[in-house]
Design brief:
The chain is mainly alpha-helical and 183 residues long. The protein folds into 2 domains: 112 residues, no CATH class; 62 residues, no CATH class. The protein is built from 6 helices and 2 strands; from the N terminus they run H-H-H-E-E-H-H-H. It has a two-stranded antiparallel sheet. A hairpin with a 5-residue loop joins strand 1 and strand 2. Helix 1 packs across helix 5 and helix 4 runs antiparallel to helix 5. The protein is elongated and about 80 Å long.
């Protein structure tokens, strides 16, 4: 029965620690919000009394050079709407590219933050020998935080960097495990 209590305490500490770290990071270092980059205020027609009337709207010029340059900029062509709900004034919307770049930078920074916190928590678990269930909880929680940061940045890494990052993390954890079992 005491073993079940220790397991419960270990899992509880691990999950709560990981949640605490995740929520603390979100509170003090929030990620970019899509609506901060892509408001689309200009891209959607506003409700006017008249419905769209094809005969009163000018034709869209698909040969407009904006289509080629916008594609090169990885954006998409969108339009403003006039009082008749006609598409006018094409422009290149690159807000998604800007959001993706900001989110990629945020994920990279988050990875470094969670890696440091995760490894510190694992090391705290190694040196804290007062109660094995608490030490194991911090080690497990640190591992969860490390995994979260890795998963968050994983899609932004190249194939080679994915292997390198996972290899380094595996080596660090195996080294810590060896040190733990030898002491």
């Amino acid at each position: 029965m005491a073993n079940l209590k220790n397991i419960s305490l270990t899992i509880s500490i691990a999950v709560l620690f990981a949640l605490f770290i995740g929520l603390a990071i979100d509170a003090f270092y929030p990620g970019p919000e899509h609506q901060d980059f892509c408001t689309n205020d200009r891209a959607y027609p506003k409700p006017y009394g008249e419905p769209f009337n094809r005969t009163t709207c000018p034709d869209i010029d698909s040969q407009d050079p904006i289509y080629a340059t916008c594609t090169q900029d990885k954006g998409y062509v969108t339009y403003e709407f006039d009082k008749n709900n006609c598409q006018v004034n094409p422009y290149c919307e690159t807000c998604q590219v800007e959001f993706d770049a900001s989110n990629k930078l945020y994920s990279r920074n988050l990875f470094f933050i969670t890696a440091v916190i995760g490894i510190i928590a694992i090391l705290v678990g190694l040196v804290y020998v007062g109660l094995d269930a608490i030490a194991s909880g911090f080690m497990f929680g640190g591992s969860l935080v490390l995994i979260y940061g890795t998963v968050r940045v994983f899609g932004d890494l190249s194939r080679v960097m994915r292997v390198v990052v996972l290899g380094i993390e595996l080596v660090v954890l195996v080294y810590i495990g060896i040190k733990k079992t030898r002491t």
